[in-house]
Write a structure and sequence with these properties.
The structure holds 2 protein chains of 2 kinds. Helix content of chain A is 59%, strand content 0%. Chain A has helices spanning 6-13, 39-63, 72-94, 96-102, 104-107, 113-123, 128-158, 191-207. The mean pLDDT of chain A is 80. Chain B is mostly helical. Classes of the chains: A mainly alpha, B mainly alpha. The interface between A and B is large, with 51 and 51 residues.
């Protein structure tokens, strides 16, 4: 990490675990959970948010002295919306099927609280380079949770990963299925995502007791 | 009429904003520690959805859709501005929220005091933008249905936040494992409630049956009754919260 000072490196590493946007800051849950039934959709969502947050934080940070305080929310929304339109158009051009699966959830990145949250809390008060690192770090922490949830939901729910049948064929009864293993259909339905995240929070807070909330 | 009823119950129970598509989760988790505040935010969400969804429907119909500009003259028929919908929708929402805030402050200070702090939050509540985007994605055919969709999905959100707030108030007296306390258990409860709401999925499967099928009618009537009961409860809570807020202000 010769490129980054220790303080800068922490900007990226902190949100990955002890200050994770989803499990600790409770931001950005909104638009993401419904699409984690498949690992592929989760990864695409994570990458889209990474792009929007990285670029958005830099733009807001560069504009921070020009935006009047009173209308900053609208200014921020316009910046995010423009970036999200770019992501949406690229997806429609190069991965049309996937953009159908994600449907309105790409658009909902605009109101993803984590983006507005980082703009407000960080980009408005810091220079572009540090804001960039902060954006990348938080988006990565967000993406990490998405990918973990997507991994378990697809593996346990459909027995596949990125579409590959890693556990064998459930119809032809090969691999694990020949032993009588069945897919857990429960993991496919949307509420399972909430329970998986609940369990992630449980594990994380048992490992790091500082994070436990007061009763 | 029947399509209005169908959309109404569908958006409240089957496509519930929280339990089926997880929209507005951030404020749902952050503001659900007390019933009184939850009711305030829920009411604000219903209100803003009821205003923005029909407005965005008009924008979509007359500006954004492919061929929507044909009212300006035949040379505009080929334009398709739908890629602009995100930016236009969010601008409408942010402006409307600001406008609604000013109007309420002027004409109903009591309501303003109970909603006040939540209104600016709502501009970035995913449920609001989600309402407009789903309205667009599902091709809601006319303005009346769009208004209905806005109100009923708002009510669905309201019910969800009211329920979780009530549960979280009670759960303080239970012995939750320490690492699950607060956020963790809220996630799991929401998940369980979501599974419960999945059972409403079979409520409106009357597409292939004649509309006067007695079973569906009674089921709907029953829902209607339950609904009105719930609404009464909700309203009662609301009045209580307003009173409390007023007391607090004094």
């Amino acid at each position: 990490m010769a490129l980054l000072s220790k303080k800068d490196a922490n900007l990226i590493l902190d949100p990955l675990a002890d200050n994770n946007p989803i499990t600790i800051q409770v931001l950005g849950i909104c638009s993401a959970l419904a699409i984690t039934a498949e690992l592929k959709a989760s990864i695409v969502m994570a990458v889209s948010v990474l792009f929007v947050m990285g670029v958005g934080n830099v733009v807001i940070s560069l504009l921070r002295n020009l935006i009047p305080g009173k209308i900053r929310i609208i200014a921020q929304l316009v910046v995010v919306a423009a970036l999200v339109i770019m992501v949406d158009q690229v997806l429609k051009a190069f991965a049309y099927e996937l953009s159908k699966t994600l449907s309105v959830f790409i658009g909902l990145i605009i109101t993803n609280c984590i983006i507005m949250g980082r703009f407000e809390a960080f980009a408005l008060a810091n220079g572009p380079w540090r804001s960039f690192l902060d954006g990348i770090g938080n988006a990565a922490g967000y993406g990490l949770i998405l990918v973990i949830v997507g991994f378990f939901r697809e593996l346990l729910g459909s027995g596949t990963l990125l579409g590959y049948k890693v556990l064998g064929d459930s119809v032809a009864k090969t691999g694990l299925y020949s032993l009588g293993y069945e897919n857990n259909g429960f993991m496919i339905i949307p509420p399972a995502a909430l329970i998986v995240i609940g369990i992630i929070i449980w594990i994380q807070r048992s490992r790091n007791r500082v994070l436990i909330e007061e009763a | 009429m029947i399509e209005h009823l169908e959309l109404f119950f569908k958006s409240i129970f089957i496509d519930n904003m929280i339990f089926a598509v997880f929209l507005g989760m951030c404020s749902y988790l952050a503001v659900s520690k007390k019933v009184a505040t939850a009711v305030g935010l829920g009411a604000a969400v219903i209100f803003v959805l009821a205003v923005t969804v029909p407005l965005n429907w008009l924008l979509d119909k007359y500006i954004l859709q492919a061929g929507a500009l044909s009212w300006m003259g035949p040379e505009y028929v080929d334009y398709d501005l739908s890629f602009l919908s995100y930016i236009l929708f969010i601008a409408t929402i942010a402006t409307m929220v600001q406008l609604v805030e000013i109007v309420i402050e002027k004409f109903s200070p009591a309501l303003y005091n109970s909603l006040g702090i939540f209104l600016p939050l709502i501009a970035v509540n995913c449920a609001i933008l989600g309402g407009s985007l789903f309205m667009q994605a599902r091709d809601i055919p006319n303005l009346g249905l769009a208004l209905n969709y806005g109100i009923s999905s708002g009510i669905g959100w309201f019910l969800a936040i009211l329920a979780i707030a009530a549960i979280r108030e009670k759960i303080r007296y239970s012995k939750v494992p320490a690492p699950l306390r607060g956020l963790g258990i809220a996630f799991i409860i929401t998940g369980l409630m979501g599974i419960g709401f999945q059972s409403f999925g079979g409520m409106l499967t009357g597409d292939n049956e004649p509309p006067d099928e007695p079973a569906t009618v009674t089921a709907e009537a029953k829902e209607d009754k339950e609904k009105s009961n719930k609404k009464d409860l909700g309203e009662k809570d609301k009045t209580i919260s307003y009173n409390e807020v007023e007391v607090l202000n004094k």
